[in-house]
Design goal:
345 residues, alpha/beta, FAD/NAD(P)-binding domain, seven-stranded mixed beta sheet, 8 helices, globular, binds flavin-adenine dinucleotide
Protein backbone atom coordinates (compact mmCIF):
# COMPACT_ATOMS: atom_id res chain seq x y z
CA UNK A 1 0.00 0.00 0.00
CA UNK A 2 1.11 3.55 -0.67
CA UNK A 3 -0.08 6.09 1.90
CA UNK A 4 -0.97 9.64 0.90
CA UNK A 5 1.21 10.83 3.77
CA UNK A 6 3.52 9.33 6.37
CA UNK A 7 4.60 11.24 9.43
CA UNK A 8 7.81 10.48 11.29
CA UNK A 9 7.15 10.98 14.99
CA UNK A 10 4.03 10.98 17.18
CA UNK A 11 4.92 14.10 19.17
CA UNK A 12 2.44 16.96 19.23
CA UNK A 13 3.55 18.38 15.86
CA UNK A 14 3.26 15.03 14.08
CA UNK A 15 -0.09 14.28 15.70
CA UNK A 16 -1.43 17.72 14.89
CA UNK A 17 -0.42 17.26 11.23
CA UNK A 18 -1.90 13.77 11.07
CA UNK A 19 -5.22 14.95 12.51
CA UNK A 20 -5.65 17.66 9.87
CA UNK A 21 -4.82 15.24 7.05
CA UNK A 22 -7.02 12.42 8.34
CA UNK A 23 -9.89 14.89 8.74
CA UNK A 24 -9.68 15.47 4.95
CA UNK A 25 -10.06 11.74 4.30
CA UNK A 26 -6.41 11.13 3.39
CA UNK A 27 -4.65 7.85 4.13
CA UNK A 28 -2.17 8.85 6.81
CA UNK A 29 0.17 6.82 8.94
CA UNK A 30 2.46 7.91 11.77
CA UNK A 31 5.59 5.93 12.54
CA UNK A 32 6.91 6.40 16.07
CA UNK A 33 10.11 4.93 17.48
CA UNK A 34 8.83 4.68 21.05
CA UNK A 35 5.85 2.76 22.35
CA UNK A 36 3.96 5.88 23.41
CA UNK A 37 2.68 9.09 21.89
CA UNK A 38 3.21 12.75 22.81
CA UNK A 39 7.03 12.89 22.48
CA UNK A 40 8.47 15.44 24.89
CA UNK A 41 5.04 16.14 26.41
CA UNK A 42 5.80 13.13 28.57
CA UNK A 43 4.68 11.61 31.86
CA UNK A 44 6.65 8.95 33.72
CA UNK A 45 5.05 6.37 35.95
CA UNK A 46 7.24 5.85 39.03
CA UNK A 47 6.58 2.52 40.70
CA UNK A 48 6.78 2.52 44.49
CA UNK A 49 8.69 -0.35 46.17
CA UNK A 50 5.66 -1.18 48.32
CA UNK A 51 3.30 -1.22 45.30
CA UNK A 52 1.32 1.49 43.54
CA UNK A 53 2.73 4.27 41.44
CA UNK A 54 2.99 8.05 41.06
CA UNK A 55 2.86 9.83 37.69
CA UNK A 56 5.24 12.74 37.13
CA UNK A 57 5.62 15.10 34.16
CA UNK A 58 9.31 15.07 33.30
CA UNK A 59 9.18 16.82 29.92
CA UNK A 60 6.88 19.75 29.19
CA UNK A 61 5.46 21.23 32.38
CA UNK A 62 2.60 23.44 31.21
CA UNK A 63 1.51 25.24 28.08
CA UNK A 64 0.20 28.60 26.99
CA UNK A 65 -2.41 29.30 24.30
CA UNK A 66 -1.60 32.61 22.63
CA UNK A 67 -2.38 31.85 18.99
CA UNK A 68 -6.11 31.91 18.07
CA UNK A 69 -5.85 28.60 16.18
CA UNK A 70 -4.26 26.84 19.11
CA UNK A 71 -6.75 28.47 21.48
CA UNK A 72 -9.54 26.64 19.65
CA UNK A 73 -7.72 23.35 20.17
CA UNK A 74 -7.25 24.14 23.87
CA UNK A 75 -10.92 25.12 24.23
CA UNK A 76 -11.84 21.63 23.00
CA UNK A 77 -9.40 20.04 25.47
CA UNK A 78 -10.84 22.12 28.32
CA UNK A 79 -14.41 21.12 27.38
CA UNK A 80 -13.50 17.47 27.39
CA UNK A 81 -11.43 17.67 30.58
CA UNK A 82 -8.14 16.78 28.86
CA UNK A 83 -6.42 19.83 30.38
CA UNK A 84 -7.17 22.50 32.97
CA UNK A 85 -5.83 25.90 33.90
CA UNK A 86 -3.08 25.02 36.37
CA UNK A 87 -1.73 28.47 37.12
CA UNK A 88 -1.65 32.05 35.89
CA UNK A 89 1.98 32.65 36.81
CA UNK A 90 4.95 31.25 38.70
CA UNK A 91 7.34 32.21 41.46
CA UNK A 92 10.83 33.38 40.53
CA UNK A 93 14.13 32.72 42.26
CA UNK A 94 16.65 35.50 41.61
CA UNK A 95 19.53 33.96 43.52
CA UNK A 96 18.66 35.59 46.84
CA UNK A 97 14.90 35.46 47.32
CA UNK A 98 11.78 33.70 46.17
CA UNK A 99 9.53 36.26 44.50
CA UNK A 100 5.75 35.80 44.16
CA UNK A 101 4.23 35.56 40.67
CA UNK A 102 4.47 38.91 38.90
CA UNK A 103 1.11 40.25 37.68
CA UNK A 104 2.77 41.62 34.54
CA UNK A 105 3.28 38.05 33.23
CA UNK A 106 -0.14 36.79 34.24
CA UNK A 107 -1.75 34.48 31.66
CA UNK A 108 -3.35 31.01 31.77
CA UNK A 109 -0.88 28.12 31.97
CA UNK A 110 -2.49 24.77 31.26
CA UNK A 111 -1.59 21.27 32.46
CA UNK A 112 -3.31 17.86 32.56
CA UNK A 113 -4.60 16.14 35.69
CA UNK A 114 -3.44 12.74 34.50
CA UNK A 115 -0.13 14.09 33.15
CA UNK A 116 0.96 15.89 30.00
CA UNK A 117 1.00 12.65 28.00
CA UNK A 118 -2.81 13.04 27.97
CA UNK A 119 -2.38 15.56 25.12
CA UNK A 120 -0.69 13.02 22.86
CA UNK A 121 -3.20 10.32 23.79
CA UNK A 122 -6.06 12.62 22.92
CA UNK A 123 -4.64 13.72 19.56
CA UNK A 124 -3.75 10.12 18.70
CA UNK A 125 -7.34 8.94 19.05
CA UNK A 126 -8.47 7.23 15.82
CA UNK A 127 -5.17 7.75 13.96
CA UNK A 128 -3.11 4.98 12.46
CA UNK A 129 0.15 4.84 14.41
CA UNK A 130 2.85 2.22 14.08
CA UNK A 131 4.75 2.22 17.38
CA UNK A 132 8.24 0.88 17.89
CA UNK A 133 9.07 1.90 14.29
CA UNK A 134 12.35 3.81 14.33
CA UNK A 135 13.07 5.20 10.87
CA UNK A 136 16.73 4.60 10.14
CA UNK A 137 16.80 5.67 6.50
CA UNK A 138 14.60 7.29 3.89
CA UNK A 139 14.74 6.63 0.14
CA UNK A 140 13.14 8.44 -2.76
CA UNK A 141 11.88 5.88 -5.24
CA UNK A 142 10.28 7.55 -8.28
CA UNK A 143 7.18 9.35 -6.98
CA UNK A 144 7.22 7.71 -3.57
CA UNK A 145 9.13 7.84 -0.33
CA UNK A 146 10.21 4.68 1.44
CA UNK A 147 10.75 4.74 5.20
CA UNK A 148 12.95 1.92 6.47
CA UNK A 149 12.64 0.77 10.08
CA UNK A 150 15.41 -0.46 12.33
CA UNK A 151 15.57 -4.26 12.30
CA UNK A 152 14.23 -4.76 8.77
CA UNK A 153 13.01 -8.30 9.43
CA UNK A 154 10.35 -7.50 11.97
CA UNK A 155 8.56 -4.63 10.22
CA UNK A 156 7.87 -3.72 6.64
CA UNK A 157 9.06 -0.46 5.11
CA UNK A 158 6.40 2.21 4.67
CA UNK A 159 5.67 3.82 1.31
CA UNK A 160 4.07 7.24 1.01
CA UNK A 161 3.65 10.06 -1.50
CA UNK A 162 4.43 12.81 1.01
CA UNK A 163 6.35 12.74 4.26
CA UNK A 164 6.42 15.04 7.28
CA UNK A 165 9.52 14.76 9.51
CA UNK A 166 8.76 15.86 13.04
CA UNK A 167 11.81 14.62 14.95
CA UNK A 168 14.07 17.36 16.38
CA UNK A 169 15.67 19.04 13.35
CA UNK A 170 19.22 17.60 13.68
CA UNK A 171 17.70 14.10 13.67
CA UNK A 172 15.38 14.87 10.76
CA UNK A 173 18.33 16.27 8.80
CA UNK A 174 20.21 13.00 9.24
CA UNK A 175 17.29 11.15 7.66
CA UNK A 176 16.27 13.50 4.86
CA UNK A 177 18.82 16.32 4.70
CA UNK A 178 20.06 15.13 1.31
CA UNK A 179 16.65 15.81 -0.26
CA UNK A 180 16.72 19.57 0.34
CA UNK A 181 18.80 22.31 -1.22
CA UNK A 182 22.11 23.51 0.15
CA UNK A 183 20.47 26.77 1.28
CA UNK A 184 17.68 24.99 3.11
CA UNK A 185 20.20 22.65 4.75
CA UNK A 186 22.16 25.67 5.94
CA UNK A 187 18.98 27.27 7.31
CA UNK A 188 17.95 24.14 9.21
CA UNK A 189 21.53 23.62 10.35
CA UNK A 190 21.23 26.87 12.31
CA UNK A 191 18.41 25.46 14.45
CA UNK A 192 19.84 24.09 17.65
CA UNK A 193 18.39 22.68 20.88
CA UNK A 194 19.57 22.80 24.47
CA UNK A 195 19.70 19.65 26.61
CA UNK A 196 18.00 19.24 29.98
CA UNK A 197 18.40 16.88 32.89
CA UNK A 198 15.07 16.21 34.60
CA UNK A 199 15.02 14.93 38.18
CA UNK A 200 11.77 13.52 39.52
CA UNK A 201 11.60 13.27 43.32
CA UNK A 202 9.00 11.60 45.54
CA UNK A 203 8.28 12.52 49.17
CA UNK A 204 6.40 9.77 50.95
CA UNK A 205 5.92 11.58 54.26
CA UNK A 206 3.47 13.97 52.51
CA UNK A 207 3.94 16.67 55.10
CA UNK A 208 5.28 19.47 52.93
CA UNK A 209 3.01 22.07 51.39
CA UNK A 210 5.14 24.57 49.46
CA UNK A 211 3.63 27.94 48.64
CA UNK A 212 4.74 27.58 45.00
CA UNK A 213 3.43 25.46 42.14
CA UNK A 214 6.37 26.28 39.92
CA UNK A 215 9.55 28.30 40.31
CA UNK A 216 11.48 29.82 37.43
CA UNK A 217 15.11 29.87 38.49
CA UNK A 218 16.75 32.98 37.10
CA UNK A 219 20.18 33.21 38.73
CA UNK A 220 23.08 32.56 36.36
CA UNK A 221 25.29 29.72 37.49
CA UNK A 222 22.50 27.71 39.16
CA UNK A 223 22.24 24.07 38.15
CA UNK A 224 18.47 24.63 37.87
CA UNK A 225 16.14 26.40 35.48
CA UNK A 226 12.80 25.24 36.89
CA UNK A 227 11.18 23.37 39.76
CA UNK A 228 7.55 22.29 40.08
CA UNK A 229 5.42 20.78 42.78
CA UNK A 230 3.97 18.17 40.48
CA UNK A 231 1.31 17.07 42.96
CA UNK A 232 -0.56 20.36 42.40
CA UNK A 233 -1.32 19.16 38.86
CA UNK A 234 -3.12 15.99 39.97
CA UNK A 235 -6.79 15.73 40.82
CA UNK A 236 -6.55 12.76 43.14
CA UNK A 237 -4.46 11.70 46.08
CA UNK A 238 -1.23 9.95 45.25
CA UNK A 239 0.70 7.65 47.56
CA UNK A 240 3.57 10.16 47.63
CA UNK A 241 4.03 13.83 46.79
CA UNK A 242 6.12 14.55 43.72
CA UNK A 243 8.36 17.34 42.51
CA UNK A 244 10.26 17.79 39.27
CA UNK A 245 13.48 19.75 38.81
CA UNK A 246 14.87 20.81 35.43
CA UNK A 247 18.49 21.70 34.96
CA UNK A 248 19.75 24.74 33.10
CA UNK A 249 21.05 24.16 29.57
CA UNK A 250 24.62 24.95 30.71
CA UNK A 251 24.44 22.42 33.51
CA UNK A 252 23.08 19.69 31.22
CA UNK A 253 25.76 20.49 28.63
CA UNK A 254 28.60 19.60 30.96
CA UNK A 255 30.37 16.32 30.47
CA UNK A 256 29.76 13.18 32.51
CA UNK A 257 26.00 13.00 32.08
CA UNK A 258 26.20 10.02 29.75
CA UNK A 259 26.80 7.59 32.63
CA UNK A 260 24.29 6.58 35.30
CA UNK A 261 26.72 7.65 38.05
CA UNK A 262 27.25 11.02 36.38
CA UNK A 263 23.51 11.61 36.22
CA UNK A 264 23.06 10.68 39.89
CA UNK A 265 25.82 13.06 40.97
CA UNK A 266 24.29 15.85 38.91
CA UNK A 267 20.85 15.08 40.37
CA UNK A 268 22.24 15.41 43.92
CA UNK A 269 23.71 18.81 43.04
CA UNK A 270 20.35 19.93 41.61
CA UNK A 271 18.50 18.80 44.74
CA UNK A 272 21.00 20.73 46.88
CA UNK A 273 20.38 23.88 44.84
CA UNK A 274 16.61 23.31 45.03
CA UNK A 275 16.82 22.94 48.83
CA UNK A 276 18.37 26.42 49.03
CA UNK A 277 15.28 27.76 47.27
CA UNK A 278 12.44 25.70 48.72
CA UNK A 279 13.67 24.27 52.02
CA UNK A 280 16.11 21.72 53.38
CA UNK A 281 13.61 18.82 53.12
CA UNK A 282 13.79 18.92 49.30
CA UNK A 283 17.23 17.34 49.46
CA UNK A 284 15.89 14.18 51.07
CA UNK A 285 13.32 12.56 48.77
CA UNK A 286 12.21 8.99 49.41
CA UNK A 287 12.85 8.10 45.76
CA UNK A 288 14.23 9.74 42.63
CA UNK A 289 14.35 9.10 38.91
CA UNK A 290 16.38 10.94 36.31
CA UNK A 291 15.91 11.52 32.60
CA UNK A 292 18.30 13.21 30.19
CA UNK A 293 16.73 15.08 27.24
CA UNK A 294 19.32 15.66 24.53
CA UNK A 295 17.05 17.86 22.39
CA UNK A 296 14.92 19.48 25.07
CA UNK A 297 14.35 23.10 24.10
CA UNK A 298 14.92 24.86 20.77
CA UNK A 299 17.30 27.77 21.27
CA UNK A 300 16.17 29.94 18.34
CA UNK A 301 13.02 31.46 16.91
CA UNK A 302 12.50 28.91 14.14
CA UNK A 303 11.83 29.69 10.47
CA UNK A 304 9.52 32.22 8.90
CA UNK A 305 6.53 30.00 8.10
CA UNK A 306 6.83 27.67 11.10
CA UNK A 307 7.68 24.67 8.88
CA UNK A 308 9.95 23.98 5.93
CA UNK A 309 8.96 22.46 2.60
CA UNK A 310 11.72 21.12 0.42
CA UNK A 311 12.32 23.21 -2.71
CA UNK A 312 13.81 20.22 -4.54
CA UNK A 313 11.26 17.64 -3.37
CA UNK A 314 8.03 19.47 -2.45
CA UNK A 315 6.56 16.24 -1.04
CA UNK A 316 8.91 16.55 1.92
CA UNK A 317 8.13 18.72 4.96
CA UNK A 318 10.06 19.45 8.15
CA UNK A 319 7.87 20.26 11.13
CA UNK A 320 8.22 20.49 14.92
CA UNK A 321 8.71 22.95 17.74
CA UNK A 322 12.20 23.91 16.53
CA UNK A 323 10.73 25.46 13.38
CA UNK A 324 8.06 27.48 15.18
CA UNK A 325 9.88 29.01 18.15
CA UNK A 326 9.55 26.07 20.55
CA UNK A 327 7.03 24.88 23.11
CA UNK A 328 3.88 22.81 22.88
CA UNK A 329 1.99 25.59 21.22
CA UNK A 330 4.72 25.96 18.60
CA UNK A 331 4.83 22.22 17.92
CA UNK A 332 1.09 21.96 17.39
CA UNK A 333 1.06 25.06 15.16
CA UNK A 334 3.98 23.85 13.06
CA UNK A 335 2.15 20.61 12.20
CA UNK A 336 -1.06 22.52 11.56
CA UNK A 337 0.53 25.13 9.28
CA UNK A 338 2.46 22.59 7.22
CA UNK A 339 -0.67 20.59 6.50
CA UNK A 340 -2.60 23.74 5.57
CA UNK A 341 0.15 24.42 3.03
CA UNK A 342 -0.01 20.84 1.75
CA UNK A 343 -3.80 20.84 1.45
CA UNK A 344 -3.81 24.12 -0.46
CA UNK A 345 -1.15 23.07 -2.96
C1 LIG B 1 12.49 19.13 29.85
C2 LIG B 1 11.50 19.82 28.95
C3 LIG B 1 10.71 20.84 29.45
C4 LIG B 1 9.79 21.47 28.62
N1 LIG B 1 8.94 22.40 29.15
C5 LIG B 1 7.96 22.93 28.37
C6 LIG B 1 6.95 23.76 28.94
O1 LIG B 1 6.89 23.95 30.16
N2 LIG B 1 6.03 24.31 28.10
C7 LIG B 1 6.00 24.05 26.77
O2 LIG B 1 5.11 24.56 26.05
N3 LIG B 1 6.93 23.23 26.21
C8 LIG B 1 7.89 22.67 26.98
N4 LIG B 1 8.81 21.80 26.45
C9 LIG B 1 8.85 21.65 24.99
C10 LIG B 1 7.73 20.75 24.45
O3 LIG B 1 7.75 19.52 25.12
C11 LIG B 1 8.02 20.57 22.97
O4 LIG B 1 8.05 21.86 22.36
C12 LIG B 1 7.00 19.73 22.20
O5 LIG B 1 6.53 18.66 22.97
C13 LIG B 1 7.72 19.26 20.94
O6 LIG B 1 6.85 18.50 20.12
P1 LIG B 1 7.39 18.00 18.71
O7 LIG B 1 6.31 17.22 18.09
O8 LIG B 1 7.93 19.15 17.95
O9 LIG B 1 8.66 17.08 19.03
P2 LIG B 1 8.77 15.75 19.91
O10 LIG B 1 7.86 15.82 21.07
O11 LIG B 1 10.23 15.59 20.17
O12 LIG B 1 8.25 14.61 18.94
C14 LIG B 1 9.07 13.98 17.99
C15 LIG B 1 8.70 12.50 17.97
O13 LIG B 1 9.47 11.87 16.95
C16 LIG B 1 9.88 10.60 17.41
N5 LIG B 1 11.05 10.23 16.61
C17 LIG B 1 12.28 10.83 16.60
N6 LIG B 1 13.08 10.22 15.72
C18 LIG B 1 12.37 9.22 15.15
C19 LIG B 1 12.68 8.23 14.18
N7 LIG B 1 13.88 8.15 13.60
N8 LIG B 1 11.70 7.33 13.84
C20 LIG B 1 10.47 7.40 14.41
N9 LIG B 1 10.13 8.31 15.35
C21 LIG B 1 11.07 9.21 15.72
C22 LIG B 1 10.17 10.82 18.88
O14 LIG B 1 10.15 9.61 19.62
C23 LIG B 1 9.05 11.78 19.27
O15 LIG B 1 7.90 11.09 19.74
C24 LIG B 1 9.70 21.12 27.25
C25 LIG B 1 10.49 20.08 26.77
C26 LIG B 1 11.37 19.42 27.61
C27 LIG B 1 12.18 18.27 27.08
Amino acid sequence: MIYDAAIIGAGLSGLSAARQLAAQGLDVVIVEKSLGTGGRAATRRLELPEGGHVSVDHGAQFFTARDPLFRQQVAGWLDRGVCFEWSSGFHTWDGASLLSPDDRWKEPRFACHSGMSALGRDLAEGLQIIRGFRVVSVDRNGEEWVLHPMGENSMESIRARTIFCSAPVPQSLELTGRYISEDQRRLLGLLSYGPCLAVMALYKDKKHHPSWKGVQVRNPGSSLSWMAWDSTRRDREHLADAAVFHSSVDFASRSGLDSADGKQLAASEMLRDAARIGGEWIEHPSQTSVHFWRYAIPLGEGVERGFLRSEENPELYFIGDGLQGGRIEGAWLSGFKATQDYLLS
